[in-house]
Specification:
The chain is α/β, with parallel strands linked by helices and 548 residues long. It has 4 domains: 123 residues; 154 residues, P-loop containing nucleotide triphosphate hydrolases (Rossmann fold, 3-Layer(aba) Sandwich); 81 residues, no CATH class; 78 residues, Winged helix-like DNA-binding domain superfamily/Winged helix DNA-binding domain (Arc Repressor Mutant, subunit A), CATH 1.10.10. The protein is built from 22 helices and 10 strands. A 5-stranded parallel beta sheet has the order 2-3-4-1-5. The protein has a 3-stranded mixed beta sheet with strand order 6-8-7. A two-stranded antiparallel sheet has the order 9-10. A hairpin with a 6-residue loop joins strand 9 and strand 10. Helix 10 packs across helix 11 and helix 20 packs across helix 21. The longest helix is centred in the first third of the chain and has 49 residues. It is globular. The termini are far apart.
Length: 548
């Protein structure tokens, strides 16, 4: 008998068990193990949610009590939903064993049948022809769509040629019956409207500087830099720190955690430049009030006789971009150089003001350490948001991006080109917020579609259309926005001085930008600032105007 006609059933079945049944069974057991691990993680998450609620309840106020109640309810709902959604944990293991046995029998049958019919019979049983027919149909439909698009394009090109040579009368442009001026809210695809969120969610995503170190994500290198400056100062050498970052990037949160950690053992004096100052006398008055002394001699004694840390934020308020407008800042830099052995100065400034002052006064030369707390990586931003969300005890759902061709989406998914909805969301969120925490948190809350059934449903943050708003701005608007960002915020009177305008002209320009929702009043009531949601648009506009 020829060798290809010999059959060895026992050997074929043993090989099928080893090559097919065993991997299938292992895969089923692996899935069951993953389900167990998922359940353990959800139990741990529920525990953290309850612990966060108890921390809020410890404050003793009514809001904290409501947060605690919501935390317990959300944790219970989370576990019940997980239990109901998982079903029988043993099912994947059983399914893997059954599938492995069935696959082993099929493989054994194929091995025994190989000499007579061959592999084509097996492939036909696996509906290979049906799959090839479906791919062929999709390809043919794509060719037909491309042909129709080509014909339509050729027709349009012919009409364009006839219009250019004057053989066709150009159509009258259509005029809109109602013209509306563009504004920032109309450019954003998601309205930043007030939405009734659970109390625990409001507390987790409030736009306040972080004080709990566990919420300070992605700032390990910056904290190490602050610790190095503090160690140099404790060793008796001159040290001073300048923290540079965009507004809302987390400079205050970084300083809060440093005060609670690496700077906790030193006497600390902390304040903020809340008003505009341009003279040395204004600076001395501010420092005397900060230290609680009355005379200039007492101020110098406080800075030189006892080691201490002085933290002052909003350094951009110590100058005005006019003639003789840098007196306060120059005096402060001289004071830092003279006292940096006994006093560790830690100042913060926004990055636009720093670039300007570094070019004008060589600001960076006056500090031994510069901490750049500009932006964070995408993964750090994602972790910061998910960390807060997970403590709410609510599930997270993402709505898909609408597509015109559902069959194309199925084909992309089959080829592994379809992106996960969560990854797609955070990629867009990071791009639109530029890695700035405050902008990302505001954008996150604006994308909440609903909170019901123990789940937060998020709509995808589509790309804004800034072109209509960009057409509303002119060169003078660019100069005004640049000045506001450099100074952190400006009043109408300061705008008039910086841009050499009359009070009426400055008021008109500021009111117009407020109407476009680009400027808004400072939270403390001192002047106007660029609205955080408009930060990306303003930077892009200034870059186009060569003002960035």
């Amino acid at each position: 008998m020829p060798p290809w006609r010999e059959l060895e059933p026992l050997k074929a079945f043993s090989q099928a068990l080893e090559s097919t049944a065993r991997p299938g069974a292992e895969d089923g057991l692996r899935q069951a193990e993953e389900l167990h691990q998922t359940l353990v993680r959800e139990i741990e998450r529920a525990r953290e949610v309850v612990a966060f609620g108890l921390e809020a309840a410890a404050a003793g106020d009514e809001a904290g009590s409501r947060v605690a109640q919501e935390a317990v309810h959300n944790a219970r709902t989370l576990l019940l939903g997980q239990r109901n959604g998982m079903g029988d944990i043993r099912a994947p293991a059983e399914a893997g064993l059954v599938w492995g046995q069935a696959a082993a029998l099929a493989e054994c049958h194929l091995a025994l049948d190989r000499g007579r019919v061959g592999r084509w019979a097996h492939l036909t049983r696996q509906r290979g022809l049906r799959a090839s027919h479906e791919l062929g149909r999709l390809a043919a439909e794509g060719v037909r769509r491309g042909a129709r698009a080509t014909v339509a394009g050729a027709r349009q090109f012919r009409e364009w040629i006839l219009l250019q040579v004057g053989w066709l009368v150009p159509p009258r442009p259509r005029l809109e019956p109602v013209g509306v001026r563009a504004h920032l809210g109309g450019a954003l695809p998601v309205e930043s409207q007030a939405r009734e969120l659970p109390m625990i969610y409001q507390r987790l995503f409030r736009l306040a500087p972080v004080e709990d170190p566990r919420f300070l994500v992605g700032r390990e290198a910056e904290l190490i830099g602050l610790a190095a400056a503090a160690a140099q100062w404790r060793a008796g050498r001159a040290a001073s720190v300048l923290v540079v970052g965009a507004r809302g990037s987390g400079k205050t949160s970084l300083l809060n955690c440093a005060v609670a950690g690496i700077l906790a053992q030193a006497p600390i004096v902390r304040g903020q430049f809340s008003g505009r100052m341009t003279t040395a006398e204004q600076l001395h008055r501010f420092l005397r009030e900060l230290f609680g002394v009355t005379g200039q001699g007492e101020l110098m004694a406080a800075l030189t006789e006892q080691p201490r840390v002085v933290i002052v934020e909003e350094l951009e308020r110590t100058f005005l971009r006019v003639v003789n407008g840098f007196g306060a800042l120059r005096e402060l830099l001289d004071l830092i150089c003279a006292t940096s052995v006994s006093t560790l100065w830690v100042l913060s400034i926004n990055e636009t003001a720093f670039r300007y002052l570094d070019a004008v006064l060589e600001l960076s030369r006056c500090f031994s350490h510069r901490i750049t707390a500009m932006f964070v990586e995408r993964q750090d931003l994602t972790n910061a948001i998910l960390q807060r969300h997970n403590l709410s005890g609510l599930r997270l759902e993402f709505t898909p991006v609408p597509r015109k061709e559902p069959r194309l989406r199925l084909l992309r998914r089959g080829l592994g080109l379809e992106q996960d909805l969560q990854e797609l969301f955070f990629e867009a969120l990071f791009r639109h917020s530029e890695g700035i925490f405050r902008s990302a948190f505001e954008r996150w809350k604006a994308c909440i579609e609903s909170v019901e059934g123990g789940a937060v449903r998020m709509r995808q943050p589509l790309a804004p259309n800034y072109e209509p708003l960009r057409r509303e701005l002119g060169q003078q608007d660019g100069f005004l926005l640049q000045a506001v960002i450099q100074h952190g915020g400006l009043t109408v009177e300061e705008v008039a001085r910086v841009l050499d305008l009359s009070q009426t002209e400055a008021r008109r320009a500021v009111d117009r930008l407020q109407a476009l929702e680009i400027l808004e009043p400072e939270p403390d009531g001192l002047g106007l600032r660029v609205q955080p949601e408009a930060g990306l648009f303003v930077r892009d506009f200034l870059h186009r105007q060569n003002l960035w």
